[in-house]
Specification:
The chain is α+β, with helices and mostly antiparallel strands and 566 residues long. The protein is built from nine helices and 32 strands. The radius of gyration is 55 Å and the shape is rod-shaped.
Length: 566
């Protein structure tokens, strides 16, 4: 009985194997095709799967996903496998889950291409010309198809998951080319249609900062970009758009201009806010003390930001009462916090004049009290010019000694004849003009004017000794005491006509002369050599003096004027 049952089972098994063989022969189970099986055993190295064939198949356990090193597979799981060959040396079917998965992906991608569908994938690596994307199999994403605009740094996209359109598919060669740009263009075109419906001048819209340049920022309004120029970002000073924005920032802007023909859009941000200059005149009245930050320097002054959008100018002349500021950078730097006084405001032209020196007392207003006229001061020569010397009175305040106030008697051609820069001198305060910030000093006024005693010291007819200082075609200038000279006209040399004064006198020669004219007001003295000779000869020189009195003074004046002109 038992033998009969066993024989029957063996016959049934033989029949089943025959049926499987027949089924396999009919193409139901073929090499290279995908079949579905059931996991019957999970071992250390292999997973055994039953696909309904006479023998079971094995798959390397490494083809199954793992979590923390544990294979994610158990008996009873249904899996798709690829039949690689019917039996190996152990009598088992050779199966592959990994290859089945890949073939299935290829089939899914092929179907998606036929239906014009999109696929999802993760960017996994940077390759030559673009990026590698894992969509179940490796696909190529050209750099030109990554975004609407070229992206300089493709590496930053690695690890990101996106949707793509398959633009090239070749299963035999294993070649898949993707495009993200095609989808973005399609989305953008749809957004653009919606945006154009509400895009009009004056409209306030929300957008995203798409790109930043030196002159502005491009804002994506939804399928269409607008330019937010740097001058329309803020009422205040903006050196670079990156001070206010980053790519990706959400902003609310106002449409300033829209050209439907060219689809150019000009945007403004500051136009959403109130212009601070509309009420500046009420806030910044003349005389008001204010604080601000130095934002710009020029040759003529410093611009100070009092609040965003409101700047004032401190002119270089308003920086210090006493210092001669050659450039604003000598006193302030960009970024400095400064205090100033409002001098004037012009709201129409958006200008505010500021002064730094007005914070302090004007030293010129107290100079008259500190240095009344007649005060003797000491100071160093700070500068020498053709017209005089500047003497330092106190820090930043100089007084001018005009060339005419250097000496009562010395004929100064240039102040450098008497003084050098750095010399310490004494001078008398002659005049103070606080409004024009000028102080006049005198050095010769420290001494008595010798011309006050000259008429008494040298009366007409007095004989004196002198030294020839200068010879001209019309006569000779003879010094009769240090700094006091008189003119001996050529006609006063001798009774005989003298053609060339240089043949008659020599420079440095000592001569006896007679005073024939004195004019203290004009500081002129007339001398005569021949009058001395007449006196020595016993001639009545007084009669001679009387005869020359009327003409000699006029002649002397003319000659001295001629000398000064020369």
């Amino acid at each position: 009985m038992a033998s009969t049952q066993m024989q029957t089972q063996q016959e049934d098994l033989s029949n089943f194997e025959a049926l499987l063989e027949a089924s396999y022969a009919k193409g139901e189970i073929k090499d290279g095709e995908i079949s579905q099986g059931t996991v019957v055993h999970v071992g250390k190295d292999f997973v055994v799967v039953d696909i309904g064939y006479k023998s079971e198949g094995q798959i390397a356990i490494g083809e199954f996903p793992t979590v923390n090193g544990v294979p994610q597979v158990k008996p009873g799981d249904r899996v798709d496998v690829l039949v690689e060959s019917r039996e190996n040396d152990n009598g088992l079917i050779v199966l592959s889950k990994e290859k089945a998965d890949k073939l299935k992906v290829w089939d899914d991608i092929s179907a998606a291409c036929e239906r014009d569908e999109v696929v999802e994938g993760t960017i996994v690596a940077r390759v030559k010309g673009g990026l590698s994307v894992d969509i179940g199999v490796k696909a190529f994403l050209p750099g030109s198809q990554v975004d609407l605009r070229p992206i300089r740094n493709l590496d930053k996209l690695i690890g990101e998951k996106h949707r793509f359109k398959v633009i090239k598919f070749n299963k035999k060669r294993g070649n898949i080319v993707l495009s993200r740009r095609v989808l973005l263009e399609k989305e953008r075109e749809q957004l653009k249609k919606e945006t154009l419906k509400k895009l009009q001048e004056g409209a306030v819209m929300e957008g995203i900062v798409k790109n930043i340049t030196e002159y502005g920022a491009f804002i994506d309004l939804g399928g269409i970009d607008g330019l937010l120029h740097i001058t329309d970002m803020s009422w205040g000073r903006v050196n670079h758009p990156s001070e206010l924005f980053n790519v990706g920032d959400e902003v609310k802007v106002k449409v300033l201009k829209f050209d439907p023909a060219t689809e150019r859009v000009s945007l403004g941000l500051k136009q959403i806010q109130d212009d601070p200059w509309t009420s500046a005149a009420a806030r910044y009245t003349s005389g008001l003390r204010v604080k601000g930050k130095v934002v710009s320097l020029t040759d003529y002054g410093a611009f100070v930001e009092l609040e965003p959008g409101v700047e004032g100018l401190i002119h270089i002349s308003e920086m210090s009462w006493t210092r001669r500021v050659k450039h604003p950078s000598k006193l302030v730097n960009i970024g400095d916090e400064v205090e100033a006084v409002v001098l004037d405001i012009d709201s129409t032209n958006k200008r505010i004049s500021l002064g730094m020196k007005q914070i302090e007392t004007n030293p010129w207003t107290v100079l008259e009290q500190r240095y009344p006229v007649g005060t003797v001061i000491k100071g160093k020569v700070r500068n020498i010019t053709d017209f005089g010397i500047f003497v330092g009175i106190e820090e930043g305040i100089d007084g001018l000694v005009h060339i005419s106030d250097l000496s009562w008697t010395h004929r100064v051609k240039h102040p450098s004849e008497l003084y050098n820069k750095g010399d310490e001198v004494e001078a008398v305060v002659l005049n103070i003009n606080a409004e024009e910030e000028r102080i006049s000093l005198g050095i010769k006024q420290l001494h008595e004017d010798p011309w006050g005693r000259i008429p008494q010291a040298y009366p007409r007819g007095a004989r004196v000794k002198g030294k020839v200082q200068k010879i001209t075609d019309f006569g000779a200038f003879i010094e009769i005491e240090p700094g006091i000279e008189g003119l001996c006209h050529v006609s006063e040399f001798d009774d005989a006509r003298v053609e060339n004064p240089r043949d008659f006198l020599k420079l440095g020669q000592d001569v006896d002369v007679m005073i024939i004219d004195v004019d203290a007001e004009e500081r002129k003295i007339g001398l005569s050599i021949k009058a001395v000779k007449k006196a020595e000869e016993g001639t009545d020189y007084r009669a001679y003096l009387a005869s020359t009195k009327g003409e000699s003074r006029a002649t002397l004046g003319d000659l001295l004027k001629d000398k000064l002109q020369k």
